[in-house]
Specification:
- The chain is of the alpha+beta class and 296 residues long.
- The protein folds into two domains: 4-120, Gcn5-related N-acetyltransferase (GNAT) (Aminopeptidase); 122-267, Gcn5-related N-acetyltransferase (GNAT) (Aminopeptidase), CATH 3.40.630.
- It contains eleven helices and 15 strands.
- The chain has helices at residues 11-18, 30-35, 37-40, 72-85, 97-106, 126-131, 138-150, 162-178, 187-199, 245-256, 273-281; strands at residues 4-5, 43-47, 50-57, 60-64, 67-68, 91-96, 111-115, 121-125, 154-159, 207-213, 216-225, 230-238, 263-265, 286-288, 290-295.
- Strands 1, 2, 3, 4, 5, 6, 7 and 15 form an eight-stranded mixed sheet that branches. The chain has a seven-stranded mixed sheet with strand order 9-10-11-12-13-8-14, with helices on both faces.
- α8 packs antiparallel against α9.
- The relative contact order is 0.18.
- The mean pLDDT is 96.
Length: 296
């Protein structure tokens, strides 16, 4: 297979393969593949209307599970062949429990599965993100009420124009400076991915919203439909000193953009304690398990 880097012009071809997926996992989404490829050196190939992708993480090459029309056993054989040609072990990452069961059924006892907690994805009932009902989410309501009290001139607006994206880009640059002292090495890649999503907002067919205070953007969020019942949030940013900024963009985004979907996927926590604590505090409905498949 001839693997190559992902260009924005590859969206149609890749989406034609991704239409065969039946997964709420955010990995199988063109925007994520495109925007994060600089972090993982992601490349792809398409054979028989089936998407094959591989990437590098901490010096190890991983494949993604193939998605498309090709029969499962044939697609796995192609992965094995490519791994042999490149003299690397076959390791398939971002494999859900559902996909693992299919692999087991087709190729019993040939592979083994290792769950990766840092890559579990957080799915929430959209209705709960909107209403924040109950004692367990009282603190979220308090943060939002505090934000509204401190900022009576706040408003939510959809991101619709290039000018909106440009304004969000300016806010993103400020966000980067505010977090320059962070010990999290992934923030630079997060910044670059968010920048690419704003730059190619229309081509990626994203949807977005922003919170303004006195006409100035203090928070924004971008996402898109993932399946018929799930909307995925790709990036969410708020000023560090804006008390309740993340809470209100989360709630308003769900209410104004994702309301017709049953679930909102807010992606994984990457093993970061602060991010895991924040995501768990919203009481996810589903922790979508993902892991690595390797040969026995």
């Amino acid at each position: 297979m001839n693997f190559k880097s992902i260009e924005i012009t590859d969206k149609k071809a890749i989406d034609n393969c991704l239409q065969y997926k039946n997964s709420r996992a955010c990995d199988y989404c063109f925007a994520n593949l495109f925007a994060w490829q600089h972090r993982y050196n992601t490349t792809f190939a398409i054979e028989n209307n089936t998407l094959f992708a591989k990437f590098n993480e901490n010096g190890t090459t991983f494949y993604m599970f193939p998605v498309g029309k090709m029969p499962l056993q044939k697609s796995l054989e192609l992965l094995e062949e490519d791994a042999r040609n490149n003299k690397i072990p076959l390791k398939i990452k971002a494999v859900s429990e559902e996909i693992w069961r299919k692999i087991q059924a087709e190729t019993p006892d040939k592979f083994m599965y290792i769950a990766e907690r840092e890559n579990f994805e957080y799915l929430y009932l959209t209705e709960k993100l909107i209403n924040l009902s109950g004692k367990k989410l009282q603190s979220k309501r308090n943060h939002i009420n505090r934000f509204k009290t401190d900022n009576p001139a706040w408003e939510f607006q959809l991101i619709q124009t290039r000018e909106d994206c440009y304004q969000c880009w300016n806010m993103l640059k400020t966000w980067e400076a505010e977090n320059a002292d962070s010990s999290d090495p992934s923030l630079i890649y997060d910044f670059e991915a968010s920048k690419l999503m704003l730059k190619h907002f229309e081509e990626l067919e994203l949807q977005g919203g922003m919170i303004k205070v006195n006409g100035k953007i203090v928070a924004f969020s971008l996402g898109e439909p993932l399946t018929n019942d799930t909307f995925v949030v790709h990036t969410e940013k708020a000023h560090r000193d804006m008390n309740g900024g993340y809470a209100i963009i989360n709630q308003q985004f769900a209410e104004n953009i994702a309301a017709k979907y049953l679930y909102v996927n807010r992606e994984e926590d990457m093993g970061l304690d602060s991010l895991r604590k924040a995501k768990l505090s919203y009481k996810p409905e589903i922790l979508l398990q993902e892991g690595i498949v390797v040969g026995r």
